[in-house]
Amino acid sequence: MTRFWPLACIILAALVPWLPGMPSFWVTLLNYTGIAAIVAIGLVVLTGIGGMTSFGQATLLGLGAYTTAIMSKYYDISPWLGLPAGLLVTAAGATLIGAVTVRLSGHYLALGTIAWSVGLYYTFANLDLVGRNDGISGIPPLEIAGYRLIDARMSFTVIWLGVLLAALATMNLLDSRAGRAIRALKGGAVAAASFGVDTARTRLLAFVYSAVLAGFAGWLYVHMQRSVNPTPFGFYQSIQYLLMAVIGGAAHIPGALLGAALVTLVNDRLQDILPKLFGARGNYESIVFGMLLIAVLQWAPDGLWPLVARFRPRRRAIQADAPRLAAQTMPERGSTLLEVVRLRRSFGGLVAVNDIDFTLKAGEILGLIGPNGAGKSTIFNLISGVDTPTGGIVRFRGGDLTGRPARHVAAQGIARTFQHVKLVATMSVIENVAIGAHLRGHASPLAGLLRLDRAEDARLYAEAARQLARVGLADAADRPATSLALGQQRIVEIARALCLDPVLLLLDEPAAGLRHNEKAELATLLRRLRDEGVTILLVEHDMEFVMGLVDRLVVMDFGTKLADGPPDVVRVDPRVIEAYLGSVE
Fold first, then answer.
1. Is the dihedral of CA 199, 202, 203, 204 positive or negative?
2. What are the CA-CA distances from residue 337 to residues 222, 296, 386, 525, 575 (Å)?
3. By three-state DSSP, how is residue 569 classified?
4. Which of 190, 178, 213, 156 is nearest to 41 (CA)?
5. Residue of 519, 511, 517 whose CA lies nearest to 493
6. Residue from 56, 58, 53 nearest 115 by CA
7. Least reliable range by pLDDT among 4-13, 199-208, 358-367, 559-568
8. Distance between CA atoms of 67 and 140, rounded to whole angstroms?
């Protein structure tokens, strides 16, 4: 039955406004609810899922509204042609604004959106072309087959079909390769970049997409209202849209609809009730909404929708016979794969990595060990592009990787895990693993939006399922990633790394949190990977695990290399015993 819900929504959109006894006032109020819901759906993508707070969505709505108003009023162009024009202008404006704004983070991003929102609002209010504060009136309504949609009931059907379209498009986008990249921003942007996601471009995509939905809502608003002025596009209205998303459930599309309905309908009732209570008119509803927001953040930080709807993990059907993805060509065993030459990283006066040299041969497992704070994870960050060296050279397969961004390093066939697990809490295990195959797919965001990427996505998920089976976690594929034990989460990270089809695998403490038998299984897996041609650089504190697994060891202490050689030689080196192994004993 669930597959037919869009058809049910279409039927409801056509019939609800014509129900006997339905007042025109309530139909109009539901129209405003639908327009607000479209803006809130955009905020689900931007804020709830992408982790970027915007206080400027109302102003972006104004870009779409004013564009179609000018075209239809002054140039007698059909409102239907005003839709693509409004979307293009809004997308172009959002691209220019977002190119600067989304590079900010945290409260700086929020302040940035406030700044350009206020700037555009006063531009609308002082520009002669758009009628200054008086705005534009006499805007023609939408027209279908010669019938002018002046009646609120006809507008209701168009608006709520628009809500359905926005919801379906957003669901398609979030369930695509580009959507997984957006979802990875909030909980693991560093990890996403390490698997080839261009995080700056992905943040801009989320920003522009939410702006396009706001522009679409502006087009609907202006041809329903048939007039436009700056008032609905100010900072206060942007706060209300954000309030809708947060109260409803900022990470859930149905939550956007719930929040839009609650805020719009409650706001209307409060405007009638509160002046009677206080004996004077004023914006008392703002005080109530502030209190409501505090209560929701306190008692339901994920919004109200998760409280009214019980979520079960989606069981994803995997196409087992999907064609396999193209595989890397492994280098000749024994050839020099990685060269680290006088690598150095300083943080002010602290030298974390002090002129380290070592090489790694293809088909070898190299262990990197040393006390806490020796600089091991810093070396991983320098090799994988997460951090930039102060000096020295990193060569991979003869090419210079020094200072290259993480997504470029991933494209060369280097995958990694992290000392502190970096999985996206809002995604299932198999969705997290599929992020590792990001560079092995090529579908565009538009293909995902239109659901034209299904064949490629089936191949990506089939690869993710194979890697989960490879590490022994096939049964956990549909579980929330953070519901697993810490040791299992580390194994999920390994499966994600294997999805990249790596030539070199960087494992940062993969055995931490594993039981004895799980460590034995992990060692067996790593030996099998080595036999298949995968080269492994390993950081680990469990000496029993390391000594029985690696071909060679590099020992560090205070950022400096102490020893380099086979395990049997390194373990009896007096300097190593004094600095590390002796302290363990």
1. positive
2. 61, 54, 20, 21, 28
3. helix
4. 213
5. 511
6. 56
7. 4-13
8. 13
Q: Is 565 left (phi over 0), alpha (psi -120 to 50) or beta?
A: left
C-alpha torsion sign, points 45, 47, 52, 57: positive
| C-beta separation of 242 from 54 below 8 A | yes
pLDDT at 50 over 60: yes
Exposure on the CB side of residue 315, measured as CA atoms within 13 A:
1
pLDDT tens-digit profile of 68-117?
A: 999 998 998 999 999 999 999 999 999 999 998 988 877 888 889 999 88
- pLDDT tens for 399-421 read 999 989 999 999 999 999 998 89
- Number of helices (H), then strands (E), belonging to the chain: the values are 23, 14
Please give the full DSSP string across 107-172, using - where no structure is assigned: HHHHHHHHHHHHHHHHHHHH-GGGTGGG-EE-PPPPEETTEE--SHHHHHHHHHHHHHHHHHHHHH
Structure tokens at 313: 């993990």
Cβ–Cβ under 8 Å, residues 385 and 354: no
Nearest in space to 311 (alpha carbons), one of 377, 255, 263: 255
Backbone angles phi, psi at 204, to 5 degrees: -65, -40
Pairwise CA distance, residues 89 & 60, whole Å: 10
Query: Could you tell me the two tokens for 8?
Result: 């049910």
CA atoms within 13 A on the CB side of 549: 30
Residues forming a β-bridge with 428:
480
Contact 310, 296 (CB under 8 A): no
Torsion of CA 242, 244, 250, 255, to 10 degrees: -160
Q: How do strand 336-347 and strand 350-361 relate by DSSP bridges?
A: antiparallel
> Looking at this protein, which amino acid is placed at residue 294?
I
Backbone region of residue 385 per phi and psi (left: phi > 0; alpha: psi in -120 to 50; beta: other values) = left
| Alpha carbon distance 267, 263 (integer Å) | 6
Which tokens hold the place of 311?
A: 């979520």
